[in-house]
Structures are given as structure tokens and as C-alpha cells.
Amino acid sequence: MGRVDGVDVSPEMLDRAAAKDIYDRLVCADAVASGLGEARYDLAVSSFVACHLTDLAEFYAEAARLTRPGGRIVVIDYHPFMLLKGVPTHFNDPPGEPIAIANVIHLLGHHVEAGRRAHLALLELREQLVDAGWVRQNRQKFGENRLASHVGHPVSFAMVWARE
Hints:
CATH class of the domain at 31-129 and 156-163: Alpha Beta
Shape: globular
Radius of gyration: 17 Å
Strand order of the largest sheet: 3-4-8-7
Number of strands: 8
Strand content: 25-35%
Order of helices and strands: EHEEHEHEEHEHHE
CATH superfamily of the domain at 31-129 and 156-163: Vaccinia Virus protein VP39
CATH architecture of the domain at 31-129 and 156-163: 3-Layer(aba) Sandwich
Helix content: 25-40%
């Protein structure tokens, strides 16, 4: 069975990850300089990281460096449409107050360009729209009235890349 390693710049997120007891190793590092070994992973997954990074070229270069030839890279992220619409990524602190996180707008074309420069081949791109089911699932967390105004708009995307 393969290894499952995790990287996050936030010690708090690493603590949450450690509580799941599924990781072989957790590293506190930046996603563009993980410190993990070169070309050893069959699969690398990035979940809602790229929208917080200034340099997509460094991000995709690190993903390619970590992944063996023929390996796959999955990038799941917040859709730039929401950022352009003025809706930043955010979470609620323990008392329930919303906290926005610094965001950088990277259009999907910027991802494609950075991935190709890192010698990755885009295999698939999917975009998730806000629909009635998404509103129902998230209404308690964000409030139904606020979410309803986003129905039909893209909220996230997923890209699957192959390392050449």
C-alpha cells in the first residue's frame, strides 16, 4: 500500500489532519516548497490551495517534481468567477465570525499555462455550479439567502493532470 503524506502551511490544519489518523507523514511547509522527496508519488492532490498562492508556475512545478512520470495530479480549487464576483474564500472562527483568507485570482487559462510549462498534460477539467442541492447542503453553514444569489454560478473546479 502507498504512503499518504500531507503538507499545509498552517499548524492548525495539520492538527486537524493528524486527528484523522490516515497520514504517514504531515509536513508544515508551503505548497510550492514542500520539502518532500522528488518523483515518488503516483498521485498528488491539492485541495483549495492555488487560490491563495501568488505564483502558479511554482505550484505546478512542485506538483510535477513530486509526481513520478505517468503519475496524476488533481487540483481542486475555488473558481475564479467567485473571486471576480467579490466572494472571497472564508471560514468561520470558533465564535462563528467569518474570516476571509487572502486570495489571488488565477483564471483557468493561467492554470493550463502553468501546468503545461511544468510538462503536465491536462486530462480533464470539471467546473461545479451552485445548484439547489448545493444550497440545501450548505445553507446552515452560510445561510440560504446568501447562497441562493449564486445559483447557476461556478463555485469550484477540478483538473486532472498527467506528468509526462
